[in-house]
Write a structure and sequence with these properties.
This protein has one helix and eight strands.
Length: 141
């Protein structure tokens, strides 16, 4: 008895029996802003990691800005490589005009091939009123 299979049938059988190489990607981030009485501050952080059969790659980005009509502003961002293949970013922005101020801070962490965490905290205050606070967190796995 002879068995004859076309090359297309053989290719389908081989593809069905061979495991597929999967690529997984994770991305996430957070952002926030605060504003009161002629001051404002905003920050953002985002990151991603991707794993394939050929390796793992990660990226991170962060930034912030602040503005005040008559006051002072300050902003800064630090990005560094953590332990092993992990990435960290911390960005802050603040504006103040006398006792009135707005501030925002975002911290983002990328654990290569595992997760992306990001938290943003904002606060604004005007003399004579209670401060307004907000926290936004995101974890992607």
């Amino acid at each position: 008895m002879r068995l004859f299979m076309s090359s297309a049938a053989v290719a389908i059988l081989l593809a069905a029996s061979a495991p597929l190489a999967a690529q997984t990607s994770i991305s996430g981030g957070s952002a926030g802003s605060a504003a009161v009485g002629g001051t404002s501050a905003s920050t953002v952080g985002t990151g991603g990691t991707s794993t394939s059969p050929t390796g793992t790659g990660s990226s991170i980005a962060a930034g912030g800005s602040a503005a005040a009509v008559d006051g002072k502003v300050q902003s800064g961002t630090n990005v560094n490589k953590g332990n092993g293949p992990n990435l960290n970013a911390n960005t802050r922005a603040q504006a103040h005009d006398g006792g009135t101020f707005s501030r925002s801070q975002t911290r983002t962490k990328v654990k290569a091939g595992e997760e992306v965490q990001s938290t943003t905290r904002t606060m604004s205050h005007e003399p004579g009123s209670a401060p307004i606070k907000s926290t936004t967190s995101n974890t992607s796995r």
